[in-house]
Amino acid sequence: MNKVISRIPDVRNELFGFSIISIMIFHFCEDTEKANPSAVLSALVWGYNLLLGSVGVEIFLFLSGMGLFYSLSRDARITRFYRKRLTRILPTYLLFGGAGWLALDILIRNAGWARFGLDFSMLSFWTDGVRLVWYIALILALYLVFPLLYRLINTSDAFALVLIAAVFAGCLTLYFCAPAVYDNIEIALWRVAVFLVGIWYGKRRNQGKSFVKEWLVFAVLGAVFMLLNLLTNHYPSLLGGVFSLRLGLLFYPMIVIFVAAAVLLRLKDGKIRRVLRFFGAMSLELYLSHVMLRAVMNSLGLSTAFLPYYLLCLTASILLSLAVHRLLSMRRSK
Q: Is the pTM of this model over 0.90?
């Protein structure tokens, strides 16, 4: 087990690829659930959501926390850290986000330029709960505070536990005291805990220390929380219903990461790993092109719950992502 956990950085790119593929499948399942699917398709969707669901997002955040720790450890210059992060994410968002929100807010919905400004700036996620590109809004906020998180967790493991506990406390406080605010941003806030685990893992791995005990604790919590989540679906009043929240699925991704890494490490560096690396290298472009195209197509009545439209969305997303990824890579290399 220690060998697998310690070698997760060796398959980081493959895990990014696995994550973005799983997210795109989850979005198809999400659309299908709303379209009164057949019994067979409904069972397949239920099974996929039970095993993976949106777990790819947590894997993204874990790997991001880990990678950011390594990056700042190698080069402690804060200005360089911010410049590197922003030049990676902003040009891609400006292209896909700009085109997508222009199509949605101006051409399709005729919502006006003020609405476009709120959505394109991602302020609408924090104020109104507009979730289309919530992940970008979250990761930019995490980039902003990362040097502080790095300093705290690098000082002591206890800070990692305190910060994770603070995420739990903050989310539950909002849930009970400010439910409207909670509903807007809960999709992002709970997942900060997994990002913190990624930073903590990066620290221990960078120091050459084992993370097996901590991983086991999070995996056990993930299994227990998920079981409580399933029970809460049948008994809503169980433990105040809090495990019906995203808390119930929070650490399950640690189990998925371990299993996926174990499988990848046993595979030879063949076609499967190369395909996953291919998708992992342009996971940001794929995420943005996919969510934007999906939203535009659904707004035009081309429901991506219909398999041919979903495949069209998928194909167009891959082609656009590949073109933009190569264009921006060439520009950065100059």
A: yes
